[in-house]
Amino acid sequence: MEKKYLAILACPKCGSDFKSEIKKESSKEVLEGRLLCKNCSQEYKIEDGIPFLYYSDGNSSQEGVREMFNETPYGLLGARGAMENKEAINMATIQKTPWYLQEETVADKLALEAGCGGGHLYTELCLNHAKIIGLDQTPNSLRHIQKLFRDHGKTA
User: Fold this and answer.
1) What Å distances lie between residue 3 and 7, 16, 71, 90, CA to CA?
2) H or E stretch including 46?
3) Closest residue by Cα to residue 52 from 146, 152, 150
4) Maximum Cα–Cα distance for the chain, whole Å?
5) Coil, helix or strand for 60?
6) Which residues contact residue 45 at a Cβ distance below 8 angstroms, ignoring those fewer than 6 apart?
7) What is the pLDDT of residue 137?
8) What does the buried/exposed string (b/e) look like for 141-154 if buried means 16 or more CB atoms within 10 Å of the residue's CB?
9) Looking at residue 50, what DSSP letter applies?
């Protein structure tokens, strides 16, 4: 994740700011480290540029859903297809979606996609030149999106 975006993250458990401990970084991105909540001391790891902001509240149904989607991230084929066929993803395609976005509305803007799953909206935003922070409770979804984007020369 780009260093400048770490400052806008908050602890999902209590909403407080983080103190970051960076172990490995590139010129713009934090690659490895951890985020420590200044209030509740909850700790979250950063691996391969992805901050994993998940904590368990002991709700077994939530854990079950998380594990199910972690094993089979939803919609990865759709996101992969969008990246491989980016010529087909254009304003006509986007206009058919219920969350119709116009490139001039999102280009160069910072967007947050909470629950990015397999990356459908994330991909659409990227192809329309938005800067995106994607959040999901399933680490494998985030890893798959990151790999997909890196394979296509993009930063997720």
Assistant:
1) 8, 18, 29, 30
2) strand 43-47
3) 146
4) 47
5) helix
6) 33, 34, 35, 51, 52
7) 79
8) bbbbbbebbeeeee
9) E
Tell me which DSSP letter residue 74 carries.
Answer: T
Question: C-alpha distances in angstroms, 44 versus 1, 16, 49, 60, 82?
Answer: 14, 13, 13, 20, 31
Q: For residue range 70-121, what is the model confidence (pLDDT) as tens digits? A: 666 555 555 556 556 655 555 455 555 555 566 678 888 888 888 887 777 8
Q: Which two tokens stand for residue 130?
A: 């938005």
From 152, 90, 98, 96, select the one nearest 124 (Cα to Cα).
90
Q: Fill in the amino acid letter for 93.
A: T
Cα–Cα dist 143/70, whole Å: 10
Mean per-residue pLDDT over the chain, rounded = 78
Query: Considering just the CA atoms, what is the radius of gyration of the chain in Å?
Result: 16
